Amino acid sequence: MKKILLSTALIVVATVANSQTLMTENFETLTVGNVSADATGLTPGQGGWSINGPSVADFQIISSGTDKDLQITGAAGDATSSRYMWKDGLAALWAARTPGNNIIQIEYDFFTGPTSTSKNTVGMELYNTAYAKYLGGFRMRADTKVLNGIYTTAAGINPSLVNLGATPVVLPANQWVRVGWAYNSTTGLITFKGPGFEGTIAGAVSDIYELDFTMENFETTGNTSSFNALFDNLAVRAVAAVNLLGTSEATLKKMGISVSPNPTADYLRVDSKARILNTYIYDLSGIRMDAKMVDGKIDVRSLPVGNYILGLKTEEGMVSKKFIKK
Hints:
By secondary structure, the protein is mainly beta. It is built from two helices and 26 strands. It has two domains: about 220 residues, Jelly Rolls (Sandwich), CATH 2.60.120.200; about 80 residues, Immunoglobulin-like, CATH 2.60.40. Keywords: Signal. It comes from Marnyiella aurantia.
């Protein structure tokens, strides 16, 4: 069974201060339309992406406002069905990591979509070679917007869903959010982080093989509508210590990115050697807002006083910088 691995045509191994970028994907270099012409997964499509599902039309690169996103469309009926998209090569990249970087971190943006009756579930999942163990991931059900973590327990129970908070995490409709998880390949410990939650759970120790974008329908009754899931800004890193939803100062320096003044009451000035494709602002719950940059400046005057994260979609991947609005 093949699956999804996001990487927008950019697969790199960049080492910075004990952190390595294994893979990034922002879809900007792909052409609007079908990801691949082969829904069996035997022949890769655009950017080396392979797909597996009922139809090539279920996997689309779309133009969304000022940038491009991946759209996966789920099932409209009761039959159990799945859709996966992947790119080969993660196992080799992981094997070539710097010694000591034994934690893999995966972060991505996704759109929660409108109010829906669809029972489709959407997310990303990390697997071992035999596809027998889930090494972390997320599933959101379209009708309830409940987000769960998915993993194989240390005792081998597979797959297991976990609530990400004291009560189920329910995401707001029609919002872009950024989520991430980290898997420690030495201990099996999994860390989940996203809007309003952060926590750890003991998982199974295993090899790392493949990462998938997933769209699945497990319901055999009651599902009468499909769901369109949107993804963007995937980042996969090998690190020595968990640093989810953040970019190290060393990485920002290497890319020639500076953000000032910080704190600010009105504008952020962004300087960068790398070309910036788009800008976003995330509140501390992970909700994404568009942020227009004009002449290197971002207007933040309308933001309430507080702490935020500036997200920069660059040619070299997604980076972020915390800032304070005063």
